[in-house]
Every structure is written in structure tokens, then in C-alpha cells.
Amino acid sequence: MKLRVCMFGVTVVVIMLAAGCGSRPAGEATSDRVDPQANQPADRSGQAAQLTDRGIGLMGQFNFADAATAFAKARKLDPDSRLLQINHAIALLNTATADNLDEARRLLRAVLNRAPEDPHAHFCLGIIALHRNELKEARPHFKAVTRADPSDPSGWYHLGLTLPPGSADATACFEQALALNPNLTAAMHGLAMNLRRSDPERARDLLTGQQALLGAEWDEPLRIRYAEMGRYGNVIVPGLAVGKQPSASRSMEPLPEVLPVFAAAKPLASVTGAAPAAPRSAVGEAHDRFGSIVLPLAMTAETDLGLLVVDRGRLALFEQGPDSGFDDTTARHPGLAALSGTGVAIAAAIGDFDNDGRGDLAISTAEPTSALRLLRNDPDKGFVDISQSAGVAAVNGPAIGLAWLDLDQDGDLDLILARSEDVGGTAVLVNTSIAPAAAPNTAPPPLEPRFQEQQLGGLSGLPAATVVTSDFDDDRDLDLLLLGADRPRLVRNDRLLRFRSEPLAEAVTAADGLDLGTTQAGLVLDINADGLFERLLLRQGQPPLLEGPQATVTASSLPPLTQAATADFDLDGQADLAGLTPAGAMTVLMARPQRQWIAADLPASTEKLVAVCPADLDADGVLDLVTLTAAGELRWQRNTLAGRRAVRLVASGRRDRATSLRTNADGVGLRTVALAGPLLASWENTTLAAGLGQPRLPLYLGIGTADQADVVRLVWPDGVPQAELDVPADRLVRIEETSRKTTSCPVLFAWTGEGFTFVTDFLGGGVTGETLPDGSIRSPRPHETVLVRPSPAPVAEGGRQHVRLLITEPFDEVLYLDGLQLVACDHPADWAVIADERFPAAGPPPTGDLLIGGPAILPRQVVTESGRDVTQTLAASDGSMTTPPRPRSWLGYAERHSVTLTFDNELNLLPSNQPAVLELDGWTDYPYPESMWAAGQAGIAVEPPQLSRRLPDGGWSSPVDVGFFAGLPRVMGLLLDREFLGEPPAVFRLETAMQIGWDRAALRPLLGRFAQGGQPQPPVMHENHRVMRHLLPLASAELRYGGLARETPVGDRGLVAYDLASREPVPVSHWEGVFSRPGDVSRELAAVDRQLVICGPGFDVDCRFAAESLPDIPVGYSRTWFLEANGITRDTSPLTAAAGLVQPIPAFD
Fold it and tell me: Model confidence at 22, in pLDDT bands (50, 70, 90)?
């Protein structure tokens, strides 16, 4: 017998979600896709259903135009479908064009003619009215939503937006939204703004809480963008519940009922060696209650399956041998071998705690002082015990159940250890691992495992024997059930490592007299395949309970069970069960409608079993059964089901600082749905087995007789929605999470010969209406001299030479653009021309002049506040920046940090009678108005960079305000006089409490300057050299719509660039007013004359500057380019005056 088990790597499907600011397009999947026209149903209802699924998938990929087309085609086949009318309207709404918004409104009004209380129609009509600033029109629609579904926080929040600011009614709406979802940061902000005057202390607390969630990137976004508007702003999936309400059932004929037939058991291997003669009492007690454990285990990303056995203290690993059966390979794994003969192992959980793609192990033991062993899956050495180095070698015990989950949503797995009250109760081990630096363009290396036990109120210390993890309250974080003790408890996750516990009997809706006290284990499943997840709770000596959104009831058709696992054995999309009775008999139960099960046929057997688990041992796409007998024999019962298929899904989360991804590698907490014909398969990747073993294997999404799933939809634990169309069955499909970051400010591209290359963002100081912590409005600075790097390449067009620059608006804001001018400076190659630019914090504002600096003088040494030497990091402008310490709760704020620069005799190179230019390269993640307001309310002020000089007595001079970089990587220059510089040797300190990274620091002698502006200026002469300034007049400028440029990560420091090759449609937004007409805007931009071009989100300005008169670059010289830009931006922040309004036009004073 040869059992080939292929675990990973057959097919890779990656869905490329765009960065953040609204819609996110999907990238291309691999060539293994199935033809979307394959197996197309011949009947009209089947074709309509398939087109509906396709439209749903396209919406998940944020391809709204094609989704609208699919829904329109489906409506022609099924013109009476209210669901299709709504979905078509939602797709049109999200294209955000005026005509489509009008058509969406017409469709939605037609829906209300048929169903006057439909919440989807009311909500979307309210959104359209809100978008058009028709508050009175929007208000009754959102009121209707709150009547139809009082549990929808988005309905209450949007109703509050339509009410007079500061009114009691608006306050009540925001309060209700927060009561329904305490993590809704938009409602936090709305309520805080309403309470600023009447209850400033609570307003401050709300904004502090908002910023804590934003800083942890664990907020609940609520914006007028698809997938972020609320439940009634999303398209309806037939068969999938909306909130807690069922939706329309899926059309097409259902599958005929087929029961799987399991073959007679065949032996695989024997657990050698007798059980310990006198097992530790905790081991024997756990076995008597829950039985033994068999866990399927992927040894590497490419290899066959292993079977891990924990049986009455014995521990063994079996791997497939070269000929047949499974061989005992325990001795090849040092960590397992050391435990195998001790008789102390109780439970095991598989989890990739170092994010390297291989399943690692946590094993609980009966040892009183070392109750936990962490075994790392080393590709060369096998399972190695790292308990000591990981910081968990001295955990009190005995311990019982285990659960891996990401409690703090930081992208790695934390561990819950269930213990009795007398040894400390539940232990929480938070993963504090640090990822080593990754080489450029390489995958992140594995984490270096470190865990820290933390005492968390509402969770730590509670007694338990087993743990069930699931999102019980559907608020996008994992809660916990602590079972097996006298008082089972539900622990609600309030995020940021805050928890609330309550007795299970008080947390669920249960019939009087229902016995919850004997609940000892549980698992998570969606028995009705409707997207509403239930928990099956096993009770001692009684039938299990089924706890769910509607009620908790006795699963009367099930026998009492000691352990169970859920899987789709008949591949009909519903969650089936395999379990053991207290007598050791196996039962396999197929899920049927109305929360019922029917038993599958099993070969007769009198052998007592102590463990059962699902596993596809022969890799035929259906799940078999592996059992362990009381005599220690591993057996395989093949599932002979034929003619049905499954999508075998491996969901890979990513932890990546550069792209703000925060999902653990195993995707624990993921929710996914597969749609195929009449079937809907729905799974939550959490606790899929009730007992002492936690498996982690691909999800088998049953799709019946279909060759493919029409669409697979996922919602990652960090909130990223994702979708893939036409996903093939009968092979492994890997879906990897991708980025969703956002930014602001217009961005600049330069034509460099082959195409446009990203340069930087700009006009960060030109934001109008920004409210400061003291309530005043910051005056915008409408001018910026922008370094254009890399240098543009002149291009010949129509017999003329031009330099092309492209300005685009990739964010939901408006750009008011005035004059543009391109400047080229020719200078000796070892000199530099530096713009006097920065975001000023105090003192005189920057001039925008061009400062001419001589040869660079680099510091001899640079060290950080912690003493780390970063001299080489700051020696060149190459993106290898210093990293600020851990951010604080408010965006843009960090713990105080500094770099100290030491110059010895290098200062003698500076002329004694001339000032110098401090040239600084770097990047700022600067604070937004909301974070500044919240921090200010907490008494925390912004601390921009300051420069001090060490005095002879060891103290520091009065600081000089440096200002900071206004966004993405750029260069700024600061003039320093000789008195401040002093005599060598000299030590200077740059210190700040902002999130700033330094890339390069150098001093240069100031040799001259060019004033900003459009007038010609003579060359600057110094000794035998001269620096020339060339003005390139604007030849043409065209305004056109291009879509939002997609953000892409650069390196591992949180830096980003933008990609014009991948554009996103603009989401619906609040903007009200008149934008400039697309076309020729050369006249408006030729001079600074207040003749403005008003650009909306997604618009480009394609500029050509005349280069015919530009001379060749002299030998030994370099050319540096600058764009002198005049403009102002206005965003949608609630703390921005006139936010969301194009008019009034801001003043350019």
C-alpha cells in the first residue's frame, strides 16, 4: 500500500489587492485557471446564478464596471430578481460616475416600490444622497435602515452624519453605533466631535481610543468605499446571511443526497511501547475525559503528511515510508525523542509560530514546573525543543488544552494554555518575536521565537481544560470559550489585549434548564452554510449543544461525544462531523438543513477507539478517516466518495511591516466562502476539532460536481477582503494576503526614457483647513520646490524636445494647482544643489530657494540614542534609513529618539566666514489632524526634530528647530551659521519624538543660492566654477482621468512608491462642487496667477516642458532637476474645515 499525500505547492493563486485608498484591483492568477465558460449551465436560472457569482467575485476584486456588466446580463436572464437589482445598483454606485449614480438610484427606487422596507435599497440610496450632500434626502433612508435592522452600527452612524452636528439626536446615533461595535473608530470620532464642548474629558478619551486602534491598524473602517460602508453597502451573496438575517436561497437544482461510504479499516502503524505503567494523574484524567490525539501534520511545505500521536503520555511521529505504511520517525526529531518516553505529554497544537511556512508544535505536559514545550520545525534537524530560548521553559503545570491564535493582531501566533485554577488558571503567552532584517527583494526571514506570559484582565487566571476560538460577536477579532471547568466562560476580545469574561450561561440564549456546566470541549462550524457560524459544544454524558447566533439548543440527533472534528466528507458544502462516543465507538454524521445530521454507513467494528481525525491520505480530494485503537494501532478508513470535488485551500497570511500586513502565516481567524452552482461552502479557520488536539491543514471547500468554484471570497483577520474567480478543484490552491496601505498628497512621476518613474509626493505643507490641537487652523504653504530624482530624460516629440512630468492624485482629496515651472541646475559633480524645503515647526518658513553647497563633509561617527552605530546607514542616500522606536498610540508619534553626529577635524574644511548647509535625507510618517488633536487632549505635544551642539561642559546648546520632511523620502537643507557650528571637534544631536527615519546627513559649505521664482538669474560663481540655472517653460499640460495609482512597498522600512501601470477606479466620496474640465490646462498652469486647475481623486496632469534651449551638461558636472509647484490640497478629515467640499476655493496667501 502506497499512500501519496501531496500537501502544498500544486497551484498558486495570489490576489493582488491595491493599496488602501478605496477600491483595490485584483492581479492575475496563475495559468492553472479553469475556463470561466466551462461547464456553463444550459438553463437560464443556472446561467443567471453563475453570472451572479461572477459579479460577486468581481466586486470582491473591486472591478466595479465588469461586475455591473455581469449583473446586468444576469438580470436579463432573471428580470424579476430583487437581489440582482440591488447588486447591479451597488456595482453602479461604486463606479462613482454621475450617470451610473443616477441609474443606481433608479434601480433602488424600483426595489422600494416592491419592498418598501428593504434595508439594502434604503442604505444605498442614503449613501448616494450623502455623497451628493443631500442630507435631508439621505436622513429618512438611514432611519429606515435602523428600523429594519436595529443591530446595524453603520445605519446608526450614517444617520448621525445627516443630523445637525452637536445635536442630541446625532449624539444618540453615534452612541448606539458604538454600543453595537465598540471598535468603530468613525463613530468614536463623530461622538468625540459632538462632545468636544459638553464633555471634553470623554471626547479626549474617545479620540485617544480611536488613535490607539488606528496606531495598531486594528480599527473598524467605515468610509464610503466598497467593503467599508457597512453590511448593506455590500452586494448580496445568495444563501449567505446579512448580519444575522438569511438572504435569498441559491437558485439551481440542489445536489442529490449522497452519503460517503468508508472502507474497512487498514492498519498504518503501531504505537510501540506500552503506555506508562503509572501515568501522571493529569495525563490519565485528560485521557479519560477526551481520549487520545492523532494530528495530521505537514512536515515541510513540499513533503508528505506525518501523523502525530499523543496517547496516554506517549508521544510519537509517523511519516510515510519508502514502500508502504507509516514509519515511526520520532527518534529523528530531538524535541520529540526527548519527550516520547517521559509519559507527561497531554495535548498538542500545530501552529506556524515563526512564520516560516512549516507547522511547529506546542505540547502541554503534566510537569509541575515545565508544563509547555515548544518544538520548532527545523528543515534540517526536525522538531527541536526551543522552550528555553523562547522563554517558556518554566511555565507552571500541569497544563491541559492549547490554542494558537493572534490575540493582538500583529501577524504572529500567540498561545493560550488551559490550566486548572490551583496552578494559576489560563496562561496567555504573547508572541514577542522579532523578524531579522530581510535582504532587498527577498522574502521576510523566519521570526526568532520569543514569548512572554502576560497577565491580562478578563482572561488570565480563569480555569479551563480546553479552549475554543471564534469570532462569536462578528466584530473581526477572535473571542474565546474556556471550557472543561465548573464554570465555562465566554471571553470577549475588546482588542489591544483587553478582554471581558462572562459565564457562558449568561452569554448565550438558551432554553431554561439547559445544562451548560458539563460543557468540556467544542469546535466551530457553519452547519447551514449560511455564513453564520455555530459552536458545537461537547458535554459529559449528554448530547452536544449547538450554540449559534439565534439560540443554543441541544443537538438531539447526536450521541454524547468525547471528541469530534468537523470536515465536509460528502463535499456538499456543509460541515459534517466525525467523533467518538464515551464507549469508544466512531460516528460520522452528515449535516443536513435545519441543523440536522444523518449518520454515514461505517463498517461494523467492536474495536475500541481512542482518537479520530479527518485526513486526505491518498490525495484524491476527499477526506478519509484516521483512527487510533485502544491497543495503539493507527488505522486508515478510505472515503470512497466519487464524482464530487473540493477546492483545497491553503490561506497564507503575511506579517510585513513595509506593507502593514498583520495576519499570521496560518491564516488563523480567516473566514472564507466558496460559491459554485447551487452550493455555498463557508468556513472559519479557527477551532475545527473538539478535544486536546489542534490541527492545521488545508480547508476542503466542497463544491459538489462542479469543476471549479465560481468565486472564493476571503476576509482576513486584519480586515482585508479578497476574492478569486474560477478557482479550480482537485488541486491545492494557495491564496496569499496582500497590501492595503493608504497615503495622501499628490504624487509626482518623471519620464525617464522607458516610461514614467515615481519620484515622490509633494505639497504636504499645502493642506488647507487643518485643525491644530489648540483649535486654530494651520495656514497652508502653497509653494514647494521639489527635487526631481531620478532625473527625467528629455524626449523628442513632434520635432521638439520636451521633459515630461506627470502629477496624479491617488487619494480621496482635491488638488488646487496653480503655476508650474521646471528648473535644471548644472553644477560640479561633487557639489549639490539643495532646496530650502521642509515642513516648518517653528521659526521662519522655508524659502524654496536653491542652496548651492560645496563638497560634502560626512560625520566621522553617528550613533542612535541607544548607542547603536549607524555611521554607514547615514553615509549615503540609499533608503537604508534609521528606524524610529516603537510608535506611540497616536499616528506619527514615537518614543523620543535621536542621532548624534560627531565631526572631528572635518569642520576645518568649512570656510571660517561662511554659513554651512546641513543636508538631510529621510522620510516622515507625519501625524494627521485626528492624531494631533487626540494627543493634544492627552497633554502630548508634537515634538519635531531639533538640533543641538554639545558644549564644552558636556551639556547641550539651545536647540535649533529643524523642521521635518513633508512625507515620502526627500532632501531638506538647513542653514547653520559659524557661531552655532563652533570649532572642531564638534558633536551635534538631532532629536525628535516623531516617526522619522534618517537616511543621510552631511555638512556642505554654502557657496550661493538661487531665489525661487520665474525670473532668469545669473550663474553663481565660486573660484573657477560656476553653477547655472536653466528655466524650462511649460509647453503643454493636459488634465485627464486615469484612476488611483496603486501603492507598492519599497524595502522594509515602511516606504512606498506608486505604480501607474495598475490603476483603481475612484470610490464614491463626499466631494461636492465643480472640478476643472478635462483637457488642455496649459494656460492655467503657465504662471502663478490664481487661475487654478481643480483636480479630483484619480486625475492626472500630464506636463511637457520645453527643452530645446537646454545646453549639454559640461564635463565633470551633474544636472539636478527641481519642480517649482504652487498648489493646495483639501482632504476629507473630520478635522479639516470644509472637508469634502470643492468650494469655497482656498486662499493662496
Answer: very low
